[in-house]
Amino acid sequence: MTTFNVHHVGYLCKNLEKSRAKFLELGYSIEQEKAFDDIRKIYIEFLTSGGYRVELIQPSDKESPMYPLLSRYKNTPYHFCYEVEDLEEATKELENKGYTIFQSPEKAPCIENGRVVFMINTAAGIVELLERAT
Which of 3, 25, 90, 101 is 20 to 30 A from 127 (CA-CA)? Predict the structure, then answer.
């Protein structure tokens, strides 16, 4: 059985700098400076506070696969990311529990090139599974 450890909460934002400023006002610290993920065409920055990690995500333009979510939800938390040891095993386990893959496994350039897969479940929403690069 897979252990699913929360890695971060993904927070979609229109303007990463403005969102960062608001999180810093709440006591967050920058863990990883803004970086560009050319696979998903997004800017990402990680912030932490009290053992919690938030991933700020800003689509670079309308071509980003994240842009439609931004136009629909505006600034909002929208996924939980779970760190797992074996991506294939964890993916199969969640598929057996009613989750569906909607973005196939790929490298995550802004998370040490770990591999990620995005899945969805009607009751749980969007989850990202992260397998750390070894």
Answer: 25
Write down the pLDDT at residue 29.
Answer: 98
Q: Where residue 102 sits, what CATH number does that domain have?
A: 3.10.180.10
In angstroms, the Cα distances linking 49 to 26, 60, 75, 77 are: 9, 26, 19, 16
**Neighbour-count burial of 22, counting CB atoms closer than 10 A to its CB (0-12 exposed, 13-18 middle, 19+ buried):** exposed
CA-to-CA dists, residue 61 to 54, 71, 119, angstroms: 22, 11, 23
Closest CA to 2 of 58, 102, 82, 117: 82
Other C-beta atoms closer than 10 Å to the C-beta of 118 total 21
Q: Would strands 5-12 and 52-59 be described as parallel, antiparallel, or unpaired?
A: parallel
**42 and 60 in contact (C-beta within 8 Å)?**
yes
Q: What is the pLDDT of residue 76?
A: 93
Residues of the chain where predicted confidence (pLDDT) is lower than 70? 133-134
Domain span at 25: 5-131
Q: Which residues pair with 52 in a beta bridge?
A: 49
Enter the tokens of residue 94: 């969640």
Q: What type of residue is 129?
A: L
